[in-house]
Amino acid sequence: PRVQDGAGCSVYDEVPPRVQDGAGCSVYGGVPPRVQDGAGCSVYGGVPPRGHNGAGCSVCVRVIPGPEADWFDCGGLNTFLTEAFSVSSKSDRTGIRLEGTPLTFRHDEQMVSSGIAMGTIQVPPSGLPIVMMADHPTTGGYPRIGNVVEDDLPILAQLRPGDSIRFAEV
């Protein structure tokens, strides 16, 4: 169940139970099953179908909260988990740069460089998330709001500029 933390943000007070999604995968409760959207794209963990040009395709990937998730105010966390982001044309094998509503921080603290992995989602001062991909550096100096679940990383690798992405906390 979700409860309010001291700052008024809704957070899990315990890890939700694992359940079977519509595709027979074991996931944490609350993650929607895979479905087809109106544009013929598989959403909530699916890969765009073959032959799809990528324009307007939308996916939802699962994320685990990152070590600096508490650096973001409720508005920033809400934006991250409820709004769609668009894949930027500036994306490459290092990272998928996202465009959309900038995330807002609780404070302007600087952090010491820390280790990052493929799937780490860093948020630079612009407030626009960057998902680290195959050629990511080994360390980063921006707050890590989350990390994409390993099974969903191949989905991200298939995205093209203009595709839409949403994040679901597990």
Describe the 3D structure.
The protein has 170 residues and is mainly beta. Helices cover 8% and strands 31% of the residues. The chain contains two helices and 15 strands. It has helices spanning 74-82, 153-157; strands spanning 2-4, 10-12, 18-20, 26-28, 35-36, 42-43, 58-65, 85-87, 95-99, 114-115, 120-122, 130-132, 139-140, 144-148, 164-169. Strands 7-14-11-12-9-8-15 form a seven-stranded mixed beta barrel. A hairpin with a 5-residue loop joins strand 3 and strand 4 (26-28). The longest helix is centred in the middle third of the chain and has 9 residues, at 74-82. It is globular and about 35 Å long. 31% of the residues are buried.
Quickly give the structural class: mainly beta
Unreliable spans = 1-5, 7-54
C-alpha end-to-end distance? 12 Å
Which percent range fits the helix content? Answer: under 10%
The major β-sheet equals:
7 strands, mixed, barrel
**What share of residues are in beta strands?**
25-35%
Q: Which series of helices and strands comes N to C?
A: EEEEEEEHEEEEEEEHE
Q: Round the mean pLDDT to the nearest integer and report it.
A: 76
Count of helical regions: 2
Give the overall form. globular
Query: If strands are numbered along the chain, what order do they take across the biggest sheet?
Result: 7-14-11-12-9-8-15
**SS elements, strand count:** 15
Query: What is the CA-atom radius of gyration, in angstroms?
Result: 16 Å
Write the topology of this structure.
Blueprint: E1 2-4, E2 10-12, E3 18-20, E4 26-28, E5 35-36, E6 42-43, E7 58-65, H1 74-82, E8 85-87, E9 95-99, E10 114-115, E11 120-122, E12 130-132, E13 139-140, E14 144-148, H2 153-157, E15 164-169
Parallel strand pairs: 7-15
Antiparallel strand pairs: 1-2, 3-4, 5-6, 7-14, 8-9, 8-15, 9-12, 10-13, 11-12, 11-14
